[in-house]
Amino acid sequence: MRAGIIGGGFMALVHARALRALGVEVAGVASSSQASAVMAAERIGATRAFPTVGELIASSDVEVVHVCSPNSTHATFAAQAVAAGKAVVCEKPLATTVEDALRLARAASEAGVPTAVPFVYRFYPVVREIRARVMRGDIGRPLLLHGSYLQDWLADPAETDWRVSSTLGGASRAFADIGVHWCDVVEFVTGQRITRLNAKMTTAFGSRGNEPESVETEDIVTMMFETDGQASGSLMVSQVSSGRKNRLAFSIDGEAGALAFNQEEPNTLWAGSTTENRIIHTGSSAMSLGDVQRLTLLPPGHPQGYQDAFNAFLADAYGRFEGLPVRDVPTFEDGLRAALLTDAVTRSSQLESWVDVSSLTRVAAPVSSVQAPVS
Ligand code: SOE
Description:
The protein has eleven helices and 14 strands. The chain is of the alpha/beta class. The protein has a domain at about 120-305: Dihydrodipicolinate Reductase, domain 2, CATH 3.30.360. The chain has a nine-stranded mixed β-sheet. It has a five-stranded parallel β-sheet with strand order 2-1-3-4-5, with helices on both faces. Strand 10 (about 245-255) and strand 11 form a beta hairpin. Helix 4 (about 70-85) runs parallel beside helix 5 (about 100-110) and helix 8 (about 175-190) packs across helix 11. The longest helix has 20 residues, at about 330-350. The chain is globular. Alpha-L-sorbopyranose binds next to helix 8.
């Protein structure tokens, strides 16, 4: 299959590297203008630069469309690709509103178009190992799910980016950008769904860079939650935490032990017990077979990282696009789930109260039966 990429930023490069690793040709790139598409095509190593997004989507050279442009454009471009019958890999957020995410997920489902959303932290061997151990009952019933997703690239108020603008990035920034990754990976390893939450969104810096407009998107989210498995949870999300680069960390504390992961040190699993704590390395014989082994590329002590996880995500997504029975590829349904959680966080923060999100767990049902929450 041949790919076309919309966008030319950091994530477009990550997608292009993963496509190269897979041996997939990047047939073309489109960006906000012909000139930026030419520059992006050179950087990315794409065969050609398309003058417009419409021409890339319509091209018979492009079978899979990768949407890596600013958030506010995702829903429109992805919907155009779905209408053209193309497989779509769309960056999160799928859309900046629940309604648009729902419409898009439904359109893809009705058109029978295969989709993927890069919730790539599912593709670390250690994350799969935690999932295997939780499912096997090694730690008993999960009681407490806790952790954080912290970054510092916006800790200096002189820094800004298109993601800061609610017009380009959407009303939620920190939660929609990184909080949703944490929720996806914790729901993935536990098999549980967040049913109720109480969140507070805080904008630490009301102005950024030289921009005259005041900042409306949040830098910080604090959240308590409960799951359909009767676990309690707490999550801290921040893009202004000095020293924390991309620290997605979680701990699943169960009746009979705890398992923890930290994305900044992704090759070790921390297994806690009341008698003895253990550090287990990727590739060691203590790791499970199956998916854990399949995703392990190297012997212990040879670190795998973010790009490897992304490459594994894309390999599985393309496997699904080609009709292989690959499991656990995050799709538009998972993108919709993230939009629903973002909406719940936003409502909770506005109402300053717990919001019941139990109806959101129905995302697993056929997409056409999912109800948008009443705001
Ligand atoms: C920026 O905050 C960002 O690149 C996110 O957009 C990604 O989803 C995350 O994986 C890393 O940080």
